[in-house]
Hints:
InterPro entries: AAA+_ATPase (IPR003593), ABC_transporter-like_ATP-bd (IPR003439), P-loop_NTPase (IPR027417). It holds the Pfam family ABC_tran. Helix content is 28%, strand content 31%. By secondary structure, it is an alpha/beta fold. It has a domain at 250-319: Alpha-Beta Plaits, CATH 3.30.70. It starts with a strand and ends with a helix. The structure holds adenosine-5'-triphosphate. Adenosine-5'-triphosphate is lined by residues 42, 47, 65, 67-73.
Amino acid sequence: MWDGYEAEWDYPFGAIRFAIAPYVDDRGKMSAIHVDRITHRYGQRTLYRDLSFRVPEGRVVALLGKNGVGKTTLIRLLMGFLRPSGGSCRVLGEDAHDLSPATRARIGLLLEGHLTYDFMSIEQIERFHRPFYPGWRRELYYDLVDRLGLPYSHKIGNMSCGQRSQVVLGLIFAQNPELMILDDYSMGLDAGYRRLFLDYLQDYLNQGGKTVFVTSHVVQDMESLVDEVIFLQRGGELLQMDLADFRRDYRCYAFEREGTEPPRPDALIRSVDTHGGQPRLYAFAERDGVEKHLAEHWPGVRLGEELAMTLEDAFIGLTGKY
Ligand SMILES: Nc1ncnc2c1ncn2[C@@H]1O[C@H](COP(=O)(O)OP(=O)(O)OP(=O)(O)O)[C@@H](O)[C@H]1O
């Protein structure tokens, strides 16, 4: 729903009334990102059709999906680098394809970890970025890059992949944006730095009112960080849930079968796999419901114990191993 307010501006030729309409969701929260029925094609290939979701302001939302489902493409669409074949995206209230410089300055973007100004040094790149952002926090940048143990004259082009990622993340934290869009922030970072990054991100969030939209292949890192998850499947199927609800409702059960076929995914069984020789099935259902369903549709299949899952287990149980 659009829930804006009206304003009136006086012009020499008379007053004009108009509605200013920020997008809010059903819970009355403003959407920092609103993707509305987008379709995207590369040539003849349709990546997604009528994809819709929202990232409410003040939330941390992870976009998770297997290689090649279109996460980076989605971020390119959000930043207006690509135009969707259909539908629209709005970011901080503006059309993604027509973002003003002022709005871009409110967005901290990490796109596949790459720095374009390789010829600059650690010091030069900070000086270059600083004037674009009114709330620049220089100390945060140097706090992070000091940990590299490199002289400030060291060129970006002569850094390792992980070191470059550290510089880019330092620049984004210094920018102190309202909205962070982080595409695979973990690229090349070692475990210690990833932990450090998460600490910085927590400090950033503690300021309040910040929104983060993040993709990552290190699903486990998301557990302590995010409020909501969006699972994007091949073919564009999308599932968005509060992380707490997903962790509570998505279950994994061992099973055994007596000479019958193994169960296949259906209206209740989300997926079936084998891990360490143990067949397992996954469902958004409690034990009673699954047992009843098996008795009705898959006789001969006997439900075993419910298995504990990490977020990564649950992710694989939802999207499949390959
Ligand atoms: N410019 C392009 N032209 C044609 N196809 C493209 C183009 N860019 C990406 N693709 C294809 O679109 C699909 C989605 O790519 P994208 O990079 O968005 O995936 P991803 O989910 O970010 O993957 P990963 O997790 O591996 O980074 C892939 O199959 C990719 O090969």
